[in-house]
Amino acid sequence: MIDRLMDNRWFLKIISLVLAVLLFSSVPDMERATDENVPSQNNVETITDVPVKSYYDTENLVVSGVPDTVKVTIQGPKNIVQMTKSLRNFEVFIDLSDAEIGTQRVPIQIRDISDKLKATVEPNYADVTVQERVTKEFKVDAEFNKKLLDDGYVSEEPVVEPKKVKITGAKDVIERISFVIATLDIGGSINSTVTREATVQVLDKELNKLDVIVDPEAVTVTVPVKSSSKTVPIKIVQKGTPPEGVSINSIFIDVKEATILAKPENLGQTESVRVEVDVSNIQKDTELTVPVIISEGISKVDPETVKVRINVDVKKANENKEEEKILSNLPIKTEGLNENYEVAFLDPASAAANLTIIGSSDIIKTLSEDDFSLFINAANLSKGNHELDIQVKGPNNVKWKLAKETAKISITEKE
User: Is domain 140-227 annotated with CATH 2.170.120.40?
Assistant: First the structure.
């Protein structure tokens, strides 16, 4: 009987239809069962740092007061809550499309979130200010730390490219702009021209940074740097006394001038550099290499060394022995002074110095104060105090030494 029914095609069709109806009717029951379980699976989560978008006329308006982020608390089925927290596939926004110029309180809204969730935004409003959007051109000033300049180098006016930038912002913020500055970030000392890209900063009069848009955000700054130098004479200073029987005929150097580098204020006070020649062990014509000596405040000299040629006379034992003679209070003359200036001696205040002359006794006997003159060279000196070498003019066949080798003077303008 059953076998015959199973072989009947219509019987199988009826059985299949009944099973399909039963299966279909069971689906709502399963959904209802699932819905009935939702309350027991409800979950609450707080999502932090949710960005806030704002919608307004960005071409003509500027808005301030919109919070960068908010907290969103969501409540609902656990699986939907967890998925929403993970994906953050919703939007928190402020609609200012109909906002007017001025300050107003507007709601912070949320959208694109499942309708099975309850969402709360904290804060749920914002006090925003809507202002007219203004764009204006400003000149960019460049600055850098001048203390980084090496001694002997000076900077010229920085060159900024482009010279001006466009600054966009709220009208009242644009009116507060006092400084538009590009600060050069230089890592070390400076002794040559520097070119760097620098970010433009916009500040008010109290040096507070202003919230504006700068176009371009960075500029190219070039700071021309050159050496602060001048050329001065090299003076020869004889040190020591030659051995008995040896007299110094002449001392020559192969270079007469040197170039010095210093800060401008130190450069103006330096009139010469010197080489010191120790003759205490010179027995014959000699050539030496000696350093060029610079004063405090001079950072560099070129050349650093010079060659010195010393020519001597060596006397026989039976020749006249050397003797010394002191010429007292020889007046110190001033040469080369500008005719519009006058000079006063500070040290020696008497404008005079003692000179010891050294030579063979038969020559020394014939010499007097009239055969020698002391002077200082005041050429090209400006007003102020100066210390100068005292120079001597006298016969070639004797040596001399000054009791005081320098003089301090004060140069003033004639009344």
Answer: yes
